Amino acid sequence: MSDTRRRVKVYTLNEDRQWDDRGTGHVSSTFVERLKGISLLVRAESDGSLLLESKISPNTAYQKQQDTLIVWSEADNYDLALSFQEKAGCDEIWEKICQVICILCENVLYVLLFSQLVCLPH
């Protein structure tokens, strides 16, 4: 993998509805025990510090915009964006987000179906 493929700028939307640059780093997706789920992590390219730690959730409306931008809201009035240097990196992370959401939704559906089957009268 080229060093630039997952290179991103992290942005947050401020109260004036302007995007603030939070830094440049490299994004990865990994399981975070504390959050009990697959999360997006961005480590600063300057010193390796954590710029972003965001658990991927099926309750979050992720949007892919243009070819190199992924945006979402973490909580009320806390919007985030990842701006990728390369389209390939954006596509890769977007696909990972979609896979994680699909798996989580399938698990919920399975639990709902199973609980209904168990509760059926005999």
From TrEMBL:
Matching entries from SUPFAM superfamilies are given as: PH domain-like
InterPro entries for the chain? EVH1_PP4R3 (IPR055236), PH-like_dom_sf (IPR011993), PP4R3-like (IPR051137)
Q: What family does this chain come from, according to its entry?
A: Belongs to the SMEK family.
Signal peptide range: none
Cite a GO CC annotation: nucleoplasm
Q: Pfam families, alphabetically?
A: EVH1_PP4R3
| Name listed for the protein in its UniProt record | Serine/threonine-protein phosphatase 4 regulatory subunit 3
Purpose of the protein: Regulatory subunit of serine/threonine-protein phosphatase 4.
Which molecular function term from Gene Ontology is one that the record holds? protein phosphatase activator activity
PP4R3 EVH1-like domain location = 5-100
Biological process annotations from GO: DNA damage response
